[in-house]
């Protein structure tokens, strides 16, 4: 039996964190043939969706799909997004959240974003920048000794 990826669990956890703190969770999605979203709202092959409890109905965040119904311009639409197509989840009010590699089959890595400037829905990549260097300095433990490990990527 193959191991289940951590991505759907992280999405659910960050969604719950946003809701518990009174923030509005948004997911940024790469749109392809497996993605069921209103095409008139897709820009540059991407869409950002408000998934707050007040904006969606019957939200199901499974291990493979995120499904819900929502109103777009007053018209109820059924939305279905493969978890593999989600490249970010964040709180609209703060910009705090997490980005994900889209090449999930090769390596389902994630990057924790400690702080980001608030951004509009179309500015997600600018609000969630990649780290400046690939190997950040490791903090040392009090009293010396081996460096304390930092978690940057999750499989």
Proportion of β residues?
Answer: 25-35%
What sequence of helices (H) and strands (E) makes up the elements?
HEEEEEEEEH
Please state the average pLDDT score. 78
Going by helix content, strand content and strand pairing, the class is: mainly beta
Low-confidence stretches: 104-141, 148-155
Q: Give the overall shape.
A: globular
How many domains would you count in the coordinates? 1
Q: Provide the helix percentage.
A: 10-25%
For the report, how would you describe the main beta sheet?
A: 5 strands, antiparallel
Strand order of the largest sheet: 2-1-6-7-8
Q: Would you count the extended β strands for me?
A: 8
Tell me which CATH architecture applies here.
Answer: Roll
Main CATH class: Mainly Beta
CATH superfamily: SspB-like
Ends distance: 16 Å
What does this structure look like?
- This protein is mainly beta and 155 residues long.
- The protein has one domain: SH3 type barrels (Roll).
- Helix content is 12%, strand content 30%.
- The chain is built from 2 helices and 8 strands, in the order αββββββββα.
- The protein has helices at 7-20, 124-127; strands at 25-30, 46-50, 56-61, 65-72, 75-82, 86-91, 97-100, 110-113.
- The strands form 2 sheets. The protein has a 5-stranded antiparallel β-sheet with strand order 2-1-6-7-8, covered by helices on one side. A 3-stranded antiparallel β-sheet has the order 3-4-5, with helices on one face.
- A hairpin with a 3-residue loop joins strand 3 (56-61) and strand 4 (65-72).
- 24% of the residues are buried.
- The model is unreliable at 104-141 and 148-155 (pLDDT under 50).
């Amino acid at each position: 039996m193959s191991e289940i990826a951590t991505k759907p669990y992280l999405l659910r956890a960050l969604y719950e964190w946003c809701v518990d703190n009174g923030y509005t969770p948004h997911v940024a999605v790469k749109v392809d043939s497996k993605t069921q979203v209103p095409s008139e709202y897709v820009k540059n092959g991407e869409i950002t969706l408000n998934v707050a409890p007040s904006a969606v109905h019957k939200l199901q965040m499974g291990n493979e799909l995120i499904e819900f119904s929502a109103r777009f311009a007053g018209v109820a639409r059924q939305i279905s997004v493969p978890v593999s197509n989600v490249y970010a989840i964040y709180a609209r009010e703060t910009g705090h959240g997490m980005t994900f590699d889209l090449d999930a089959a090769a390596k389902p890595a994630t990057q924790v974003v400690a702080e980001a400037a608030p951004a509009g829905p179309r500015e997600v990549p600018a609000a969630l920048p990649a780290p400046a260097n690939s190997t950040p300095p490791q903090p040392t433990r009090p009293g010396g000794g081996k460096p304390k490990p930092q978690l940057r990527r999750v499989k």
